Amino acid sequence: MKLLFSLSVLILLLLNISLLISAFSSTKWSTINSNKNLSLFSCTDCEQLQDNWNFECLARTTCENDSKLGECNLYKDLYKGSFAFLVLEFGSLLMSLLFLEKLIFLILKFPSGPRVSFLGVSIFMLIFHVTGTITWFSYTNAGINCPIEKNNNTRPSVCMNTGSNISIANCILMGGTIILFIISYLKTITSDSSFYIHKKFIWISGTIWLWTSLVFAFITLILMLGSLTVKNWIKFQGSLGSLFRCDNCDSVQWMSWSCLQGTACEINNDSNDCKLYRKLAHASDYFLSLQSLSLILFALYIQSLTVFIKCKVYGNKYLNYAYPILLFIFNVISTISWFATSEGIVNEECTDGDVCVRSGPKLAIASNFTLLMSVCLFLIIYYRRNEESLAFEEIDAKMKTSTNASQAKISKATPDDTQYMKN
């Protein structure tokens, strides 16, 4: 019966993750004017839609021409809703993967952490997803009926479609997954009594090295997030660009590389502008995708690191080795992929035709060095950890010594002392 519950919870959780991913890729997320299908990020049935254009491109271009048009407000709301949903769904996906890892460890009888950790990741998984879904609906005001709007100044109505329905259904399914897990598992989870002892390295306590590793890890996180958000990424032909946008490449400031690519390549697919915007758009997409994987691995690595700092045993030792190594590999590859695709160069004097890097890529490069320090320190101390059996032998020896000492004190006690202890 317990195995049946285990498989049921595991299958439901895998279904939750599958629905999260399928909702992103749905080409029929919503509908406008009864016949135009929208994905989460763009219009799939709009006429004369330029290549790689999304709601941001449509909103900024439409509002630049006439901010009173109903479509201007529509595309702005769709862009805000899709962006908020994307961020919150990434948080939900991250929590669901942490929940999945813990559940697999529990089924395979590996140390899986205390009950509060299961409750934390599962509840946050649901909160992020429900909040993301509600946020999207609050921005778009999506409903069941969406009549054709003939007045150009009136914002077109948005109707629910496959993607949004999947998102709503997944809210209910996630709640059911959590309830079933609580009923079948939560009472049976016990804290693992085994633990590790940190050995010294170069005459310094292993615990100090681990805290140092944690500091380097958080510096790495700051550098990673900084590289994603800083505006000063590149400079070329007198223009300043971030990872995703260009300051003055268009009449609309800070237009995304994807939007610029769509416009330039629509005019002339062989033009220098088209080729430049295309490679910068692809470079940012590759970097963002690999950094997203790195952030997921970072969360798994930090979990292993913080648990090990507490001297507790968690999960599988091979995975504890694999997480930091894979994190470092993906972080390095993300930086290399951006440089290889964008053909960026490190040069203070930027000539015509060159894509010269500024603060953003330098932060990305620096994150690899701080991450290397964190990973190396963790792996060294983790490799040198005391085996569980040795730790228990030391505990048993200490307990025996403590017991013998207590018995000796009792045997030497005077009658008055004995009377005092009884009282």
Automatic annotation (TrEMBL):
Keyword match Disulfide bond: no
So which residues are the signal peptide here? Answer: 1-23
Residue stretches spanning the membrane: 83-104, 116-139, 166-186, 207-230, 286-309, 321-340, 363-383
Q: Does Manganese count among this protein's keywords?
A: no
Sorted alphabetically, the keyword list is: Membrane, Signal, Transmembrane, Transmembrane helix
Question: Which top-level group of life is the source organism from?
Answer: Eukaryota
- Recorded protein name is Uncharacterized protein
Q: Which organism is it from?
A: Stentor coeruleus
